[in-house]
Amino acid sequence: MSEQNAGHIARHVAHHVIGVRNWLIGLPRLLPGLLPFGTGRRLVLPGRLREAIARQQENSEILIGWIQLGVVVTFAVLYTLAPKTFHPDVMFEPVPLVLGVYAVFTLLRLVLAHRRALPGWLLYVSILADMALLMAAIWSFHLQYQQPPSFYLKAPTLLYVFIFIALRALRFEARFVLLAGAAAALGWLGLVGYATLSRPDDTMITRNYVEYLTSNSVLLGAEFDKIISIAMVTVILGLAILRARGLLVRAVVEGQAARDLSRFFAPEVAAKITGTEHQIRAGEGEVREAAILTLDLRGFTALSTALPARQVLALLADYQARVVPVIQAHGGSIDKFLGDGIMATFGAALPTGRHAADALRAVTAIMATIDGWNAERLAAGQSPIRVGAAVSAGPVLFGAVGDETRLEYTVIGEAVNLAAKLEKHTKAEGARALSTRMALELAEQQGYRPLQQHRVLAACVVEGIAGPLDLVVLAE
Question: How many angstroms separate the CA atoms of 230 and 94, rounded?
Answer without folding.
Answer: 25
